[in-house]
Amino acid sequence: MDPLDIKHAIERAGSSQSEIARERGVTPAMVNRVIWNGDVSDHIRRAIARRIGRPVEDIWPAYYLRKFSNG
């Protein structure tokens, strides 16, 4: 998914980046950086994936599929 798709999926799920940030104890800016691939944070990525009901590997395949296929 591209970053705009992720942002829209969060909105369609009735949530927001701020809500995810509060739940994870980080700033909304941090959640935004993760969405836009500026930062890699597994716990935030997994929180986003749970919120939108998609496997984390579907949202960030280049990271997760490569990471786990290399051993």
Short description:
Residues 1-66 form the Ner winged helix-turn-helix DNA-binding domain. The chain is mainly alpha-helical. 70% of the residues lie in helices and 0% in strands.
The major β-sheet equals: none
The top level CATH class name: Mainly Alpha
As a percent range, the share of strand residues is under 5%
Assigned CATH architecture: Orthogonal Bundle
Helix content: over 70%
| Average pLDDT rating | 92
DSSP strand tally: 0
Element-level helix/strand string: HHHHHH
Number of helices: 6
Q: List low-confidence stretches.
A: none
CATH fold-level name: 434 Repressor (Amino-terminal Domain)
Distance between the termini: 24 Å
The general outline is: globular
The total number of structural domains is 1
Query: If you compute it from the alpha carbons, what radius of gyration comes out, rounded to the nearest whole angstrom?
Result: 12 Å
Structural class: mainly alpha
Secondary-structure blueprint:
Blueprint: H1 3-12, H2 17-24, H3 28-35, H4 42-52, H5 56-59, H6 61-69
Q: What are the salient characteristics of this protein?
A:
71 residues; Ner_HTH_dom; transcription regulation; 6 helices; 0% strand
Description:
This protein is 70% helix and 0% strand. The termini are far apart. Helix 2 (17-24) crosses helix 3. With 71 residues, the protein is mostly helical. The protein contains six helices and no strands. The protein has one domain: 434 Repressor (Amino-terminal Domain) (Orthogonal Bundle).
